[in-house]
């Protein structure tokens, strides 16, 4: 019997972490997060507490400090090996030390070591990071506080120790979480939504540009804390210039002003309405054990919807993976009624029974296949992201970015943000996260819309600044532009300018053969009260680029890239994979006596154990399957061409009998035309709330009708 009241792990070890307090400050689309972790040693021996926990993959961790009694110790960023040696030396001398470091394998996992906490003593750890908020399909800005860290799968025989995670079921997490947020923006805040229970939103002024919100008491740790923030007139391009640090050297990144430019490209409607009728669509589906139950069921429905929505004349294939991988066809095949039916039969039999999450090998196989001329490759990846070798996967996607676009989907709580965002960013695609009660289908169809839209090419950015000011762009070149999606550029501005001086950035690109540009004029006068947020985000952007360069060079440049990276990390105070935060309590002259006991602090996990195949077979035979949703039933009946057949299956999906459907058919109407009209009328009448999900298959149906000269019949039937 597990004692749930005494702050114990599953091994009945006491847990020294008592509570976590998180304060979120959102300014427009940038978030500053301050987490305070409160430790207390109630044992009779000195402790080393080790806590492995998730952070957003693109966070810039910029502050780490510890408070013991009245003593405050602020950590410094140092080269990782040097930080480890200093930490170990401090512990061996009986001193207190604190170490915070990023995992070598994945930038969204951190390890916090609290060393030599004497019996009866408390310590308060403060951790601060900044991050940009991602824009969602409905224009909401998404903030996610990762509260769940599922064990990351490590393939057998792979190098490195991987990430050692001590996890417990969410219901047994032995520490509490409090969370509060303050939101401010130049534009009014429409609403704030969450997947967790919130106290009511409190506006702080009459124009509703400032508000606070809190997580309701009793968070269960069964999900990440997700906030969706909605502003009025969200798609406004902006530029924020931030003054340099007075104590930093002029000409350095931290000493010069840095500008953050946010652009929202708007494309002509005429171009956006022209959808591609070609392409090679490769779907890669996670079938590891952690995808069991509702996840795999939703994924199968999504594949059905995708297959029905593909344009005639394209090519496709479906891969699935776990510890091994499978594919339906040896190579991508042309989309037809026959190949669609063959694929759907296989999808129907799919279960989450392929073991661990090994995504690297199927990706290598996909990339080894020759591309089909005039059929641009679009890769859709669905995974719960519980992989160990995140950086290796992202590097592979980047290496092949010239031959495809990658659209990624993180499924469920604890999906790796570093993996999902990294694959989409390096693959020139778009990332989506599907959590809680989100319908996977709606988000996937938005990405299909992006994939079918004309690709933006020849993207370039030019700067027009006063002659005494020069610019150094910190961001990698923009690879992708999507309608309504934000693009960010960070740049260092060197030189002096007058208070009234202005700058201008112009982004040029070509869309469907039409040259276009977006221009933004901005004041060079630094904004007030931003601190060093923009500098840290700019530094983080440059650090990630240098890390990628270092991995690609494999140290061939005499370590110059690594030296530059470590120097930038130390100067900016932003952590990297080659540095760590280290703090040693040198003020305490009392040597801590006795052997040090290590305590691993458990992290909540939502991973579900895979059901053995034999159990699945027994369960399948004894539990009646729920009736199919009428909408998905109707979708499953559509032919690859876009039409429906007038048969008993269609009548059932429409909630009618075969006789009722036949009775209302005009005498001269073709049965297939009539069936297709009925299906479209039903979708418009009963499923307008899910139009995003059936829009493409309806377009295909309407196109088929026009080819049969059935458009007039459809119009007449809608009127009646």
Number of strands: 34
End-to-end C-alpha gap? 67 Å
Largest sheet report: 8 strands, mixed
Mean pLDDT: 85
Strand order of the largest sheet: 5-4-9-2-1-13-16-15
Portion in strands: 25-35%
Task: Bin the helical content.
Answer: 25-40%
Stretches with pLDDT under 50, minimum 5 residues: 1-10, 608-626, 713-720
Indicate the structural class. alpha+beta
Broad shape = globular
Backbone CA Rg = 28 Å
Number of helices: 17
Protein topology:
Elements: E1 17-27, E2 30-40, E3 47-54, E4 60-68, E5 71-74, E6 76-79, H1 80-92, E7 96-102, E8 109-117, E9 122-132, E10 134-135, E11 141-145, E12 167-169, E13 176-184, E14 189-194, E15 202-203, E16 210-214, E17 225-231, E18 238-242, E19 258-263, H2 269-272, E20 280-286, H3 294-309, E21 315-321, E22 325-327, E23 333-334, H4 337-348, H5 360-368, E24 377-383, H6 390-399, E25 404-411, H7 417-426, E26 431-434, H8 440-452, E27 456-464, E28 470-473, E29 487-494, E30 502-511, E31 514-523, H9 533-553, H10 560-572, E32 579-585, E33 597-601, E34 603-605, H11 613-622, H12 630-637, H13 648-653, H14 658-663, H15 671-686, H16 691-707, H17 711-719
Parallel strand pairs: 1-13, 3-33, 12-34, 20-21, 20-24, 24-25, 25-26
Antiparallel strand pairs: 1-2, 2-9, 3-8, 4-5, 4-9, 6-32, 7-8, 7-32, 10-11, 11-17, 13-16, 14-17, 15-16, 18-19, 19-29, 21-22, 21-23, 27-30, 28-29, 30-31
Helix pairs in contact: 3-4, 3-8, 6-7, 8-16, 9-10, 15-16, 15-17
């Amino acid at each position: 019997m597990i004692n749930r009241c005494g702050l114990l792990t599953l091994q009945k070890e006491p847990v020294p972490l008592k509570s976590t307090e998180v304060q979120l400050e959102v300014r427009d689309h940038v978030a500053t997060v301050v987490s305070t972790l409160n430790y207390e040693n109630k044992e009779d021996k000195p402790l080393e507490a080790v806590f492995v926990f998730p952070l957003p993959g693109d966070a810039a961790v910029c502050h780490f400090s510890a408070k013991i009694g009245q003593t405050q110790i602020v950590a410094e960023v140092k080269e990782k090996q040097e930080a480890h040696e200093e930490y170990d030396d401090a512990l061996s001398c009986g001193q207190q030390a604190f170490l915070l470091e990023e995992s070598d394998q994945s930038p969204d996992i951190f390890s916090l070591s609290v060393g030599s906490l004497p019996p009866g003593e408390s310590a308060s750890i403060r951790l601060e990071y900044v991050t940009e908020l991602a824009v969602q399909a409905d224009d909401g800005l998404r903030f996610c506080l990762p509260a769940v860290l599922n064990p990351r799968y490590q393939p057998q025989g792979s190098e490195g120790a991987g990430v050692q995670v001590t996890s417990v079921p969410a219901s047994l997490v032995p520490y509490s979480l409090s969370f509060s947020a303050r939101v401010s923006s130049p534009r009014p805040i429409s609403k704030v939504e969450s997947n967790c229970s919130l106290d009511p939103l409190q506006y702080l002024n009459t124009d509703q540009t400032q508000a606070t919100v809190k997580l309701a008491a009793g968070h269960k740790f069964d999900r990440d804390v997700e906030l969706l923030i909605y502003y009025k007139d969200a798609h406004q391009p902006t530029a924020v210039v931030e003054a340099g640090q007075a104590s930093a050297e002029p000409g350095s990144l931290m000493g010069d002003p840095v500008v953050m430019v946010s652009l929202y490209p708007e494309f002509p409607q005429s171009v956006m309405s022209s959808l591609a009728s070609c392409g090679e669509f490769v779907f890669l589906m996670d079938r590891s054990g952690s995808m069991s139950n509702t996840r795999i069921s939703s994924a199968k429905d999504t594949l059905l919807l995708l297959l029905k929505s593909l344009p005639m004349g394209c090519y496709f294939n479906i891969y699935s993976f776990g510890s091994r991988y499978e594919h339906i066809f040896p190579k991508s095949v042309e989309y037809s009624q026959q190949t669609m039916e063959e694929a759907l039969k296989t999808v129907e039999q799919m279960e989450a029974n392929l073991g661990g999450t090994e995504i690297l090998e199927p990706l290598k196989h996909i990339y080894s296949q020759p591309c089909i001329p005039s059929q641009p490759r679009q890769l859709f990846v669905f995974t719960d992201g519980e992989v160990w070798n995140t950086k290796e996967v992202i590097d592979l996607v980047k290496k092949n970015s010239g031959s495809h676009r990658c659209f990624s989907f993180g499924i469920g709580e604890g999906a790796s943000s570093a993996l999902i965002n990294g694959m989409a960013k390096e693959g020139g695609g778009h990332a989506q996260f599907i959590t809680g009660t989100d319908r996977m289908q709606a988000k996937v169809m938005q990405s299909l819309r992006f994939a079918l839209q004309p690709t933006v090419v020849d993207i370039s950015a030019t700067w027009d600044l006063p002659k005494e000011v020069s610019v150094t762009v910190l961001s990698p070149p923009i690879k992708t532009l999507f309608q309504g999606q934000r693009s960010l550029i960070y740049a260092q501005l060197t030189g002096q300018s007058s208070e009234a001086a202005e700058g201008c950035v112009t982004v040029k690109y070509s869309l469907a053969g039409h040259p276009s540009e977006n221009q933004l004029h901005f004041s060079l006068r630094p904004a007030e009260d931003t601190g060093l947020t923009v500098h840290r985000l700019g530094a983080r952007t440059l650090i990630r680029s240098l890390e990628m360069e270092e991995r690609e060079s494999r140290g061939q440049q005499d370590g110059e890239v690594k030296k530059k990276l470590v120097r930038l990390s130390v100067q900016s105070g932003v952590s990297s994979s080659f540095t760590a935060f280290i703090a040693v309590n040198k003020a305490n002259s009392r040597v801590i006596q006795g052997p040090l006991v290590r305590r691993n602090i458990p992290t909540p996990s939502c991973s579900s154990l895979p059901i053995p195949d034999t159990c699945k077979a027994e369960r399948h035979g004894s539990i009646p399957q729920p009736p199919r949703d009428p909408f998905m039933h109707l979708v499953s009946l559509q032919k690859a061409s876009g039409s429906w057949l007038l048969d008993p299956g269609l009548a059932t999906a429409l909630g009618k009998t075969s006789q009722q459907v036949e009775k209302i058919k005009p005498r001269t109407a073709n049965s297939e035309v009539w069936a297709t009209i009925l299906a479209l009328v039903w979708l418009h009448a009963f499923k307008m709330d899910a139009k995003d999900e059936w829009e493409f298959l309806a377009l295909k149906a309407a196109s088929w009708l026009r080819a049969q000269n059935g458009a007039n019949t459809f119009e007449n039937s809608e009127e009646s």
